[in-house]
Each structure stands twice: as structure tokens, then as C-alpha cells.
Amino acid sequence: MTYLQGACEPRFAAVSAALSASLGKDDVGASVAVYLDGEPVVDLWGGYADADRSVGWGRDTLACVTSTTKTMTALCALLLADRGLLDLSAPVAAYWPEFGAAGKKNVLVRHVLSHTAGLPDLSGLTAVEDLYDWHGVTTRLAAQALEWEPGTAAGYHALTFGFLVGEVVRRITGRSLGEFFAEEVAEPLGADFHIGLSAEHDRRVAPLVPPPSQTDAYASSAPLGPDGTRREYTGATVRVRDTNSVAWRRAQIPAVNGFGNARSVALVQSVLANRGSVGGVRLLSPRGCEPAWQEVFCGEDRVLRSPMSWTVGFGTFGSTFGWGGWGGSLVASDPGSRMTVAYVMNQMLDRDQQDDNRGMEIIMAAYSGLQ
């Protein structure tokens, strides 16, 4: 068993055992956190922050959580909706007039948040460096045509999700998604999570480690379908080396480049599981949290090529809602039990080559503590 640091209430000892076992098998370094009724009951970390295992994973180590970032971006939209500044049923073009071009006038805000807008790809952008140009990307999206009638189908908006939601937030508030999140979410909660990481935090970053047998050229891609093929994709390909670059950290790509640890991820997302408040800080009303777990679409996802249930910003799985990131990070919230569980790591696994149950094992261990 691997030595862990942090704190864990005795009834959640299974979470500690699960993390220790993972660090002894697949993980290099990782952190887990469980919040219950808005209070931390598990905050653990262990292993190493680098592939050479020369630097220990510390209390304040950060890692890129890739698509787990989407849960933070979605929370920003729900916060604006709860304040009456954003209508989830309004057309996106009501806030972003240029977006109405190319037949997109009927795309609603809830379509964007539920991956049913019909804009799963960034057509014409083939270099990762193009993603760092916010104006360039959003201008292209505004001119882009739809792949399907909004609301009639779902297809995971892997990169476009963050630009679409982020531009709506910018049009309403005058602030970038990263700035809005920092000022309206992270700062009030004291959460160490960042969308657009400043240089002062570089020393704390644990670079992502490519899956075994892969190099840092390992790239994100759509999952294999039942027939063994992938959906054709023509946009920019993100590689591990990109996520570990300084340019990636400084950019704002609100679907995929958030930096945090399990403590900060669980803290922020526990706001939704705890009816809008945590640690004495209220961000949303109880009703304002409900779109996070109310189903908008259920059926086959055209990109993920598997059955999915999408809400306003999250995937639902039984009684839980949340999402995970490329390589393994994960957050899940259960409004019934008022519990949020997060797992953040640096060692990526390739689901095409092996099952990755690390996050799910942490979640199941957390549920054992409720019994």
C-alpha cells in the first residue's frame, strides 16, 4: 500500500484504500476529495508529480483536468441563469448576434450546454496554437454551419463547448470565462482552480504523463465505435505535449484546460450537490442548481458513439451528475446524498488499450462510507 497524506474520516477508509491501491498499480501521483453536506470528509494525495518520480505530489499540486473543466464552465452559466442574466431557453444569438449566421438562429443556450447544438467540431482549425486565439475561434464558430438540427441529436462538443459557453458569458459580463470563474466562483469559495493559469503557479503543476507505451505525442481522439472505427474529425488534435506547454496554461480553453486538484474540484462542484452553498458561501439558489441534474437529452451520442444522458452542462449516471477528463480525472455529485467526489491524477490511461476504473472505484468507495 502506498503512503498517503491528508485527512480522511474513518467511515471513508475505503476511499483511502482505493487511492493507495491505485497509486501502487497504475497511478504516478493523484489526489481524491469527498465533500458531504458541503464539508470535506476526505482530502488525500500521494505519489509523485513527475514521471521520473523525483518530486512528491504535494497538498497544493495542480494538474490539467482536461474535460473535467467543462463542469466549471457549466457552473458559470448556471450562476448567470440563477441571477436572471442568462435565459437557458433563449437563442444564443440573443446574446451573441453574429452567431445567428449560417442557419444558427434557432440554437438555444440549453442546446449548447447539453451538446445538442450541432457544432461538435471546430472546422478549419488544424493547429493547437489556433485554439489560443479566442477571437479567431469564436469568429469561426459564429460563421460555421450546423451538422444537425439543434436539439434533435447529441454529439459531444469536446472543444467547442467552452468557446460557445464562454463567449455567451463574455457577451453578458464583459469578462472572459476564466476571469468570471476566478472572481465569481473560485475567489468566494477559496478554490484553487484556474482556467488560464498564471506563471506564479507553474512550479506547482504536475505534467500529464502519457499512457504506458505512448509518448507525449499521444493525442486525444473520439472513442472507438462498436464497429472498431472512429468518427471522422477535422479539427485541431491535442497531444499530451500540448497540455504540458506554457502556452496551454496561459490560454483559456474553457472546455479542457482547467488546472486544479481533487480538493478544488470537489469544493466547487459540491455547491451544486449542496443546493447552492458550501462553507457558508451561497453561489446559487436551490432552484438554480436543478438544471445540473435535469435531463435534456437521452440517446445515442454521435461523437462518443454510446448512449448518453445530458443535462444543462453535465452527464448523468444513475443518481449522479458530473463529467470526466481525457486520461482519467473525474467528478461526480449526488444531490440526493449531498455528496461530491473528485479524482485528479497525472498518469493518463488509454481506454482503447485498457479499462480505466480508477475514478469509478474512488466513487464506489465513497458511497460505502454513506452506509
Describe this structure in words.
This protein is of the alpha+beta class. It has a domain at 62-260 and 279-334: DD-peptidase/beta-lactamase superfamily (Beta-lactamase, 3-Layer(aba) Sandwich), CATH 3.40.710. It is 28% helix and 17% strand. The chain has helices spanning 13-23, 69-82, 109-113, 134-143, 160-173, 177-189, 240-243, 246-250, 262-273, 286-289, 358-368; strands at 5-8, 29-36, 39-47, 63-64, 194-195, 258-260, 277-278, 281-282, 297-301, 306-310, 315-317, 320-324, 330-334, 339-345. A 7-stranded antiparallel β-sheet has the order 1-3-2-14-13-12-11, with helices on both faces. A 3-stranded antiparallel β-sheet has the order 4-6-5. Helix 1 (13-23) runs antiparallel to helix 11 and helix 4 crosses helix 5. The radius of gyration is 19 Å and the shape is globular. The mean pLDDT is 95.
